[in-house]
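Weekly puzzle thread! Below is a chain. First person to post its structure in C-alpha cell form gets bragging rights.
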Amino acid sequence: MSLRSVFLALLIAAGVVACAADDPHRRAKTGAAVGATVGAILGHQLDDDRGTFVGAAIGALAGGAVGNYMDNQQAEFEQALADEQRRHEIEIERLKDDTLKLSVNSEVSFDFDKAYIKSAFRPTLDKLGDILLKYNRTVVHIVGHTDNIGTAKYNLDLSQRRADAVAAYLRDRGVPQDRIRTEGRGESEPRADNLTESGRQLNRRVELYVKPIIEGQEQKAYEPPPRQR
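Winning reply:
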C-alpha cells in the first residue's frame, strides 16, 4: 500500500464520521475512525514479508548512523547488565552486521523443564525492556534453546514456549509486538557437549538478537538470525 493510499484512507475515515455534523460526539468518533483505519493499515502491513512499511512506521536508520546507534545501545546494555555479566548470567556480543546478541543462561531465567520466568530474572528483563524501548529503531529476535534431555519434539516446543514467555514479558513492559519475533530451536544448536551437566547447562539458554532497522534494507531486520553450525 502506498503512502498516498494511506492518506486517502485516513481522509475517508475522517470524512465519513464528520458527515454527521449534528452529532455531539463527532470529534471522538472521528478520532476513533482514524485510529481504526491506521490500525487496519498497519496490521495489514505487518504481514508484509519485506517489513518495509513497518520499518518506515517505526523509523529506519540511515546507513551511516547505524554504527553509532548500536554503539550507544551496546554501551547501555553493558552498563545496565554489568552485574549479570559479572555473575556469568548473560553475555553481550556484537556481530559483524551490527546486531547485538545477548545470551541468557536458562539456569537463572527458568526452572528446569519449565517455561515460567523466574522472579529473580524479572529485574534483568526490566532493564532489557527499558533499553529496547529507548532504542526503538530495532527488532528483537528471541530464540530459545535446550539441552538434549527428552525428545527433540518436546525440546523444540519447550524452547518456543520459553522464547514466547520472554516476548510476553517485554510486551508487558511496553515493547511493541511488531518489533518482536520469537523462535524455538530446541536442541539443534548446542554450544557445548551434552554429555556433561556443565555442557547441558550452557546449552539451555535464551538468546536475544537486537537488529537495527536500516533505511532501504528494512526487511533484513525481520529476517531470523542465521542458524549456528
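Puzzle host: Confirmed. Bonus trivia for everyone else. The CA atoms of residues 17 and 28 lie 9 Å apart.
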